[in-house]
Write a structure and sequence with these properties.
The structure holds two protein chains of two kinds. By secondary structure, chain A is α/β, with parallel strands linked by helices. Chain A has one domain: P-loop containing nucleotide triphosphate hydrolases (Rossmann fold, 3-Layer(aba) Sandwich). Helix content of chain A is 33%, strand content 28%. Chain A is built from nine helices and ten strands. Chain A has helices spanning 45-53, 74-79, 97-102, 114-119, 121-125, 136-148, 166-181, 193-199, 221-229; strands at residues 5-16, 19-30, 34-38, 60-65, 68-69, 82-85, 154-158, 185-189, 202-207, 210-216. A six-stranded mixed sheet of chain A has the order 6-7-8-3-9-10, with helices on both faces. In chain A, strands 2-1-4-5 form a four-stranded antiparallel sheet, covered by helices on one side. In chain A, a hairpin with a 2-residue loop joins strand 9 (202-207) and strand 10. The longest helix of chain A has 16 residues, at 166-181. Chain B is elongated and about 90 Å long. Chain B has two domains: 2-234, no CATH class; 334-572, P-loop containing nucleotide triphosphate hydrolases (Rossmann fold, 3-Layer(aba) Sandwich), CATH 3.40.50. In chain B, the strands form three sheets. In chain B, strands 7-9-10-4-11-12 form a six-stranded mixed sheet, sandwiched between helices. In chain B, strands 3-2-5-6 form a four-stranded antiparallel sheet, with helices on one face. Chain B is α/β, with parallel strands linked by helices. Chain B contains 23 helices and twelve strands. Classes of the chains: A alpha/beta, B alpha/beta. At the A-B interface, helix 6, helix 7 and helix 9 of A face helix 15, helix 19 and helix 20 of B.
């Protein structure tokens, strides 16, 4: 590969307390690449993402982003150039949509969201509304917009499509691909094969906390995934 | 645990022979505070709400007992009814306070704690000013000891059995279905309501019991001290009781007792040798709470459980007895008439009208934000209805609460998987089996643990992971929790089943399993099912009828083919699959 490596993970393991869920996973990702992580429920997809994002601390292994080792809690890793969209608890319910979107920026400007608002006009309409009154799918979209508008090198998305209507999932794919063109990388945990088909460069199928199968750009992706998952 | 308790009680009984009787006298006071702490632990450690004014109930017990001892001090026949009042009055008072506060809102926010704190402060004021009743500032003085019992020599041998009794009572409650429900409530009160439990009453009952325990300790405090002053009902003692409970361990049976004894002796030793002893006690408190959030006993217990081998998984065998039948719901037509729901400036439901009267599967689809989940929320008391009428089985159910709707045969699965994370799979299943079955007396019997129902077997066949029954629900993946919650909702055998995105977070293969499960449980034709779903594959496989919503209104209804051909629907919603 000519493109320099952005993220590398060497044999990372970890989980909750004494329970190890992810067992010795290694991966590497180049700038501008999208890695989709899929697999049955309970195999450790979310845990893997949390370990990289720093929501959980790995018990073993080394994670490097552009050559710098990622260490410490999530907010430190965020500053090192990493974005994260969790699977649940995605918005601050008591803040308005606008506050949710501009919380971390000094100018509180919504300018960076123009393209996203064009795709998801509902967000622009609901700026003054408390985020807690949004529907489940709208909360996911809000969280998605927030991560996409960040300017980091790598965004980690944990099941962005869950509860989102198909049209909006397709729009999410467009935005991911546009960001990818700008050289941004993504790690996306997904169950939605249609979305994976649209965005993936590499796919990692997990089982029992380990990588079961790994492949890059393939047309028969749906078949491969179904073959490995429907056991 | 039982062995530890027996050893502890025996150990306490030999203290006067090993040490001196003054030490035992001092220890007796701390044990009384420990009894109050056990009640606090029941509320705080188990049910998840923190009472900040527990001294009020302790003090009321002490005043009643003190009055009785001063007036009828030589006859147990006259004393015993008063001692019972010293337990009952605080218990009933707390039950009423709890029922009033808890019915206002779900959750255990700070309001309950602040109200109990305020009530304790009012109690202090009253005790200070009602001189004719309480002796005012000086309190009730020269209270004689219990007849025939020497306060300094033998009262200790009354206090230790009292502690044993309180320990036994709290241990029994923690193990009873009531105790398990309290744990469930502290983890997810709303979900507990949707199993048909009136959680406010259960919490009020727990608070009442804790206050009765406090009154019981107070009744012995009066003869022990010979004086009861307003301090006994005041805020300072209330706060200290909470601190002792926290230091010892609020989730353990013996923690509050250990906390009261350790800090009690520490304070009494330090007081004599060090002028700023209170700072030392405060540092101990801060240190323990930061370092061991589960308290001293909690920290020790977690080490010993780690050392011990895991408990065997034979727990599935306990279900041997068929659960009592539930009341059957016969009328099952659901009608929404012109429903308006508005939150702030946002119109969520805007004149929604539809009706469902057949026992089959209806899918509710529409764009994000169309108001789909709000339909369920409006039906189950989670959203205020501004206008319109909802009818279920021919009667109006507008504005009914979640637990009432569950009792009327409506089961609901939430969009975000909601299960009781700190309970095991098996304990989660208990609560589903108990739903709409558990009567008041069953709360305190062990027989509900042996209940099983035919549908459990079916559910376990469909979701084999449920057989790993001692795994904590919180350790399951999101998708498995999704399935567990679905299974639990099915186990309530609802007449109307509301499923909010049952396949969210499931892989393609699991989505097929879930579709199969929904089909299987609907095959009997005795249930009306409403499914909110985005995945058209699910809709096509399952729907007998489709309702399309947009902007809080019904846009179209009909068969899957009708809906797909409808240009108005195509304009807002195309649908797709995973």
């Amino acid at each position: 590969m000519n493109v320099p490596e952005l993220l590398s993970a060497q044999k990372i393991s970890g989980g909750y307390g004494d329970t190890i869920i992810v067992r010795g996973i290694s991966m590497s990702l180049a700038g501008g690449d999208v890695l989709c992580v899929t697999g049955r429920n309970g195999v450790g997809k979310s845990t893997l993402l949390k370990l990289i994002a720093g929501v959980l601390q790995q018990s073993d292994g080394v994670i490097k982003l552009a050559g710098t080792e990622l260490r410490g809690p999530a907010f430190v890793r965020q500053r090192q150039g990493l974005g994260y969209m969790p699977q649940v608890g995605v918005v601050f319910d008591n803040l308005s949509v606008q506050e949710n979107l501009t919380l971390q920026y000094k100018g509180r400007s919504l300018k960076r969201y123009e393209a996203l608002f064009a795709s998801f006009p509902r967000m622009a309409e609901r700026l003054t509304q408390k985020a807690g009154t949004l529907s489940g799918g709208e909360k996911k979209i809000l969280s998605f917009c927030r991560v996409i508008a960040e300017t980091n090198k790598l965004a980690i998305l944990d099941e962005p499509s869950e509860g989102v209507q198909p049209e909006n999932i397709a729009l999410m794919a467009e935005h991911i691909l546009a960001e990818k063109k700008n050289g941004r990388s993504f790690i996306v945990a997904e169950q939605n094969t249609t979305l994976i088909e649209q965005i993936h460069d590499h796919v990692l199928i997990m089982d029992h906390g380990e990588v079961m199968y790994e492949f890059s750009c393939d047309k028969n992706i749906r078949e491969i995934i179904n073959k490995h998952i429907s056991l | 645990m039982r062995a530890v308790s027996i050893l502890a009680i025996l150990g306490l009984l030999v203290v006067p022979f090993v040490g001196d009787s003054f030490m035992a006298y001092q220890l007796g006071l701390y044990l009384l505070f420990g009894i109050v702490g056990q009640g606090i632990a029941l509320c705080w450690g188990r049910a998840g709400f923190l009472p900040l004014g527990q001294a009020l109930f302790f003090g009321i017990g002490a005043y009643i007992s003190g009055y009785a001892l001063k007036t009828y001090g030589d006859s147990y026949v006259a004393l015993i009814p008063f001692m019972l009042l010293a337990i009952l009055i605080p218990g009933i008072l707390a039950g009423i306070i709890g029922a009033l506060v808890f019915s206002r809102s779900v959750g255990s926010g700070p309001y309950f704690s602040l109200i109990t704190l305020a009530v304790s402060m009012v109690g202090f004021q009253l005790a200070n000013s009602l001189e004719w009743l309480t002796g005012g500032f000086n309190g009730l003085t020269r209270i004689p000891g219990l007849p025939g019992i020497d306060t300094y020599e033998t009262l200790y041998f009354v206090i230790v059995p009292a502690l044993a009794l309180s320990t036994l009572l709290v241990a029994y409650i923690l193990r009873s279905p009531f105790g398990q429900l309290l744990a469930a409530i502290s983890q997810n009160e709303e979900r507990a309501q949707f199993f048909g439990f009136k959680t406010s009453s259960l919490k009020a009952l727990a608070f009442g019991i804790s206050a009765a325990i406090a009154g019981f300790a107070g009744a012995l405090y009066a003869p022990h001290q010979g004086i009861v002053t307003p301090q006994a009902v005041g805020f300072l003692l209330s706060a200290e009781l909470v601190i002792w409970t926290a230091v010892g361990g609020r989730s353990t049976l013996w923690g509050p007792v250990v906390g009261a004894v350790v800090i009690g002796f520490l304070a009494s030793e330090l007081r004599d040798i060090f002028q700023y002893w209170e700072i030392v006690v405060a540092l101990v408190f801060i240190g323990v709470v930061l370092k061991f959030p589960d308290g001293i006993v909690g920290a020790i217990a977690s080490v010993t459980t780690r050392l011990r081998r895991p408990v065997s998984t034979a727990d599935g065998n306990r279900r041997k007895q068929t659960a009592p039948p539930r009341e059957q719901v016969s009328e099952t037509a659901l009608v929404f008439e012109d429903i308006f729901v508005q939150v702030g400036p946002v119109k969520i439901l805007d004149g929604l009208t539809f009706s469902l009267d057949e026992k089959n599967i209806t899918c509710l689809i529409g764009p994000n934000g169309a108001g789909k989940t709000s339909v369920f929320n409006a039906m189950t008391g989670k959203l205020p209805i501004r206008a319109g009428n909802i009818q279920w089985g021919g009667t109006s159910v507008t504005g009914k609460q979640g637990f009432e709707m569950t009792r009327l045969g409506i089961g609901r699965k939430f969009q975000v998987p909601s299960v009781f994370n700190d309970l095991t799979i098996s304990q989660n299943i208990d609560i589903a089996i108990w739903s709409n079955r558990l009567r008041f007396t069953d709360l305190f019997l062990t027989s509900p643990y042996s209940w099983t129902s035919g549908i459990l077997k079916q559910v376990e066949d469909v979701f084999p992971f449920l057989k790993v029954s001692n795994k904590k629900a919180g350790d399951l993946s999101q998708g498995q929790r999704q399935m567990l919650e679905f299974a639990m909702t099915i186990m309530t055998e609802p007449a109307l089943l509301l499923l909010d995105e049952p396949c969210a977070g499931l892989s393609t293969a699991e989505t097929h399993e879930m579709i199969g499960a929904i089909e299987a449980f609907n095959a009997g034709g005795d249930m009306t099912t409403v499914i909110i779903e985005h995945d058209m594959q699910v809709v096509e496989r399952l729907a007998d009828k489709v309702l399309v919503m947009s902007q809080g209104r019904l846009l179209a209804e009909g068969s899957v083919a009708d809906i797909k051909a409808d240009p108005a629907v195509q304009a807002v919603y195309g649908g797709g699959t995973k």
